[in-house]
User: Fold this.
Amino acid sequence: MYTTELQKSASVASTEDADKLAAFEARVAADEFIEPKDWMPEAYRRTLVRQISQHAHSEIVGMLPEGNWITRAPSLRRKAILLAKVQDEAGHGLYLYSAAETLGTSREEMIEALHSGKAKYSTIFNYPTLTWADIGAIGWLVDGAAIMNQVPLQRTSYGPYARAMVRVCKEESFHQRQGYEIMMHLAAGTDAQKRMAQDALNRWWWPSLMMFGPPDENSPNTAQSMRWRIKRETNDELRQKFVDITVPQADAIGLTVPDPAVKWNEAKGGYDFGEVDWSEFYAVVKGEGPVAKERMAVRRKAWEDGAWIREAADAYAAKQAGKRKAA
Ligand code: FAQ
Assistant:
C-alpha cells in the first residue's frame, strides 16, 4: 500500500516535471527569456551559475594585468583612460555576480570557489603584461575577443545575464577601440615603438584565440548550452569571426599576425588559420599559466584586505534593520 502510494506520487511528480520541462523548452525555443523565479531544470541552473560566475571572475581577475600599468601609463590622458577602463571591468564583474546570485548562489560561495581554485577564470589573464604595448594588445585583442563572445550573449536565454551583457558590450566596444588606438600610435611611431607593438601582438595573439574555449568537437558543454540557447554561437564559430575581423585590422596598421598559415579562403569567405597549441591551453586551465600563482595571490590578498569593509557594511545593515524593527 505504502509503496504503491509512493510510486503514484513519484509518477505524478515526474509527469509534472515532464510538463514543466516541455513548457520550459518551448519558451526557450520561442526565444523568451527565462527569469529568476521561473521553473528551470537543475542542470540549466548549474550551467548558468558555472558560466556566469566564471565570467564574473574573469572580469575581476582581468583587472590585474592592466591595473599593473595605471601608474606607468605614458601620459595623464592614457592614465585616465586606463583607470576608467579598469573600473568598468569591476562594474562588469559586479553585474555578473548579481546575475548569478539570482540563481540562488551567494557571492561568498562564488568567491570561495575562485579562491580555492574550484572555479575557473579566463586563461588569458594568466599571461604577464611586459610593456606598454601589451595594454594596447589587451584592449584590441582581449576586449575584441570578449565582445565577439558577448554580443551573442545579449540574446542568451537567461534574462538577467542577457540584460547585463547589453551594458557590458557597450563598454567593451570602447575598450577595444582604446586598445586599437594605442596600437595604431605605436605602429606609426619610431622603429622601437613599432617593434614593441609587433612583439605584443606576437605574444597575445594565440592566447586570445584560446579565450573562445576548446574546439567544438572537444567542448563538453557546447551542444547542451546551444540547445538551451545559453550559448548562441559555438566556440569555433566565434573564433573564426574574431580572426576574420582582426587580421585586416592588423594589416591596416602595418602589423602581422604571428601565424604563417593565415590566408584568405574565398570559398569559405573567411581566413584559414593555424592550429592553436591546445596543450598550452589545457595547462593554463589547470592553473599552470605563466603568472597564475601571482594573480590568485593578489586576489586573495585583496579579499582579505577588504574584510573590514564587509564587516562594517554588515554591522551597518544590522543597525538599520534594528532601527526599522523598532520603528
Ligand atoms: N579559460 O565546454 P567548454 C573578458 C573551460 S571576459 C578558462 O567549451 P563552455 C573581459 C570551460 O569553463 C572573458 N577556462 O565550456 C575583460 C569548461 O570547464 P568547466 C571571459 C575555459 O562554458 C577584457 C571547459 O573549459 N568571458 O575578457 C576557457 O561551454 C579585458 C570546457 O569548455 C566569458 O567568460 C578559457 N578561455 O564555453 C576583462 C564569456 N575556455 O567549467 C578585463 C562567457 C573554456 O566545465 C580585461 N563564457 N574553458 O569546468 C562563455 O562564453 C563560455 O563559458 C566559454 C567556454 C566560451 C568561455
